[in-house]
Amino acid sequence: MADQDRDLIDRVLRGEVSAYAMLVDRHKDKAMTLAVRMLKNREDAEEAVQDAFVRAFHSLPSFEWRSSFATWFYRIVYNVCATALARRREPAAPPEDDDQVEEVASVDPLPDAMIESMEIGSIVAEEVEKLPPALAGVVTLFFLHEMTYDEIVQATGMPLGTVKVKLFRARQALRKALAARLREQKPEGARKAATTL
Amino acid sequence: MTHLSIEQIHALVDRTIREDERKRFMEHVRACDRCSRQVQFEARLRDALTTTPLISPSRKFTQQVMERIAPSPVLAMVYRILGAGGKILAMALVLGILGYALSLRLDGIQNDDPSGSSGILSDLSGLSAYYREASRLISLQSVNVSREVVEAAGPDRAKLFTMIVLTFIVLGAVDRYVMRPKLKL
User: Fold this and answer.
1) More exposed terminus of chain A, fewer Cβ within 10 Å: N or C?
2) CB contact under 8 A, A49 and B56
3) Closest CA to A56 of A26, A84, A20, A92
4) H helices of chain A, where?
5) Per-residue pLDDT tens for A30-68?
6) CB distance A120–B44 less than 8 Å?
């Protein structure tokens, strides 16, 4: 993947601008997913991703391969989205005591039968989109873009502790959301299991 | 028996721990039903998060990006003409305002006004330093050209002032609502 990116970027830098279209095609879906999850609006997200691709194109000559193109590019996407949120006066990372992970009581997992019966994939996809922008952004970079903690630190500019706390909070939020869905779907049998979450 | 913490379980399913730690945790998980179920759930959640369907932009997305990066020759020509037209308009406007201001200055000199600040500039005290600097920089020749334009507008200064303000508003509106969206600036 990274080799193909490198090859395409070399071609663009040699003057073959049309090769950039292939780079756009390779990264547009992941970039769009990140933007939609952060901005919660398809039109704004598409505009933000377009801006990110245009910025990346103009910055390609100064790209020094200190990270992969993907890490570098998703940092641009994240920053464009954060700027769009700031314009709406919705901070991407609201001030909070990020370095302190709250003590979480040990939780029991859902009973196997319940988990098996749930359409967990589609529910998780829906619930991620409901997460606050900062949590949704970090979750997407970590799980979908398969970035390491260090890469997310680079991409978002957040300290490592903050990244870890946000991931933790996102997982807890998703666990709660799954429990709530369980209550909705199986009010009788699931109530007992869901209350343990 | 001490159960694994939720952070340890996350680290286990994310594989962000050392191999020796992982083996130690897994030994516990094999022996502990509670932790085993917890790990199973977190692993399923992780799988779901890594395999959520991607969201695609509109079908013309790539084409739109490429048009912004390297517009077609016709579009590029249109942008160049619009850009040049905008610059000419802006330059004409600035020259008109400076010319008008300087014509008042010349009027003041001709009328033996020692302050040289007759006309509407006398009401704009904050601009006097700017006005003096502009007077120094603009040559008399360009002033004369601008004066002709101003004189053609007639003696009605209020009318001319209104015209300049309206021009500013129209240019601002065209820039904000037509040019910038069109050029995606």
Assistant:
1) N
2) no
3) A20
4) 2-13, 19-39, 42-59, 69-87, 112-117, 120-130, 133-139, 149-156, 160-185, 187-195
5) 999 999 999 999 999 999 999 999 999 999 998 888 888
6) yes
